[in-house]
Amino acid sequence: MVPELQKATVRIQQPERVMGIIRSLREQGMNKLQVISDFDMTLSRFGCNGRRCPTSHNILDNSRVISEDGKKKLKDLLHYYYPIEIDPNRTPAEKCPLMVEWWTKAHELLSQQKIQKGDIAQIVRESDVMLRDGFNELFDQLHKYNVPLFIFSAGVGDILEEIIRQANVFYSNVNVVSNYMDFDDNGVLMCFKGPLIHTYNKNNSVLQGTEYFQQLSARTSIILLGDSMGDLTMADGVPSVENILKIGFLNDKVEEQRGKYLDAYDIVLESDETLDVVNGILRYILIET
Ligand SMILES: Nc1ccn([C@@H]2O[C@H](COP(=O)(O)O)[C@@H](O)[C@H]2O)c(=O)n1
Predict the structure, then answer these.
(1) Given Cys at both, which of 9, 50, 57, 58 links 272, Cβ 3.0 to 4.6 Å?
(2) What confidence category does residue 287 fall into, taking pLDDT thresholds of 50, 70 and 90?
(3) Is the CB of 95 under 6 A from ligand 1?
(4) How far is it, in rounded angstroms, from Cα 232 to Cα 49?
C-alpha cells in the first residue's frame, strides 16, 4: 500500500488499525483532507551530520544581532528548560507553568536586543536551519491538490514564515499560527504578541477567534504531524473529526521516549530526517484516487 512504511525508522504499535485509517483517508479523498503540522523539528530537521539544527527560536538566539551576554542567557535557559520539556516522567500539566516561564523569559531577553524587522531575512539566510528532506514534494502536493496545511507552532512565526518563503513553498494553502513579534514604527522589536504558544498549550485555547477550523469543517480527515507529546492536541479544535492519522517524529532520547510515543502516535518515525513516510502516505491518498 505504502512502501515507505517498510523503512527501518518506522514503528507502529497497531498496524491493522493504522492501515484501516490510511484506507479510510483514501476513500474519503482529497476534498475531505487537511494536514495539521508542528514546525520546529517536524517540518524542519532535528540534526544533520551529527549536529543539531536550530529551532526558529535558536535561529534568533544564535544570530549576530544578539549580544554575547544575551546569547549566554538564552543558552542557559535552553539548557535548563529543554530537558524538562522532553522529560517522559513529568506530565504536560506539570510542564505547562515551566514552559510559560521559559518562553516568557526568552521573549523578554529577545525583546531587549533591538532586533530589526528588516534583518529577519538575512538572519534566516545565515542560519543552519534545514527543512526535512522531501519538503518540496510535501508542500507541492498539498498545494496542487488544494489540501490546507495548518502549521501550528510554538516557535517564532516571523522566522518560520521566512524559512518557508525562502524555500519557495509558502503557498496560498498554508496557514500559520505561532508566536509573532511586535515591532514599533521604526521596525524594532518591542515584544511578542499574545496569546503565548508553548509546547503544551497547542490546542483550541490559543485559537479562539481564528475561526480557522470552523471554516474547514467539511475537512474531517486529518493527518497530524508532530514531534512532541504537546503536538497531539493540535487538532482538538476541529469540529468533527472522522479519521485522524497521527505521525510523530521521535528525534531525541529515543529509547526513553519510545513507549510513550508508540502509545500516543499511530506511526512513530525514529531519527528519520525525511518526510518520505508522510509523502508516501499522501501519494497513496491523493495521486492514485
Ligand atoms: N526559547 C525557546 C523556546 C522553545 N524552543 C524550542 O522550540 C520548539 C517549539 O516549536 P514547535 O514548532 O516545535 O512548536 C520547542 O520544541 C522548544 O524546544 C527553543 O528552542 N527556544
Answers:
(1) 9
(2) confident
(3) no
(4) 29
* Protein fold of 3-46+130-287: Rossmann fold (3.40.50)
Residue pair 282/138 in contact by the 8 Å Cβ criterion: yes
From residue 289, how far is each of 17, 21, 36, 89, 118 by CA, in Å? 21, 16, 21, 43, 45
Active-site residues, by number, are 38, 40
C-alpha cell at 188: 524594532
Question: What does pTM read for this prediction?
Answer: 0.97
Q: What is the pLDDT of residues 117-170, one digit of tens each?
A: 999 999 999 999 999 999 999 999 999 999 999 999 999 999 999 999 999 999
Is any ligand 1 atom within 6 A of the Cβ of residue 199? yes
CA of 38 to the centre of ligand 1 (A): 10
Structural domain 54-125, CATH architecture: Orthogonal Bundle (1.10)
Whether the CB of 153 sits within 6 Å of ligand 1: yes
Mutate to test the pocket of ligand 1, among 40, 95, 201 (most ligand atoms within 8 A of CB): 40
Could you report how far apart the first and last alpha carbons of the chain are, in Å? 13
The residues with which 133 forms a beta bridge, in sequence order, are: 274
Cβ-contact 214, 148 below 8 angstroms: no
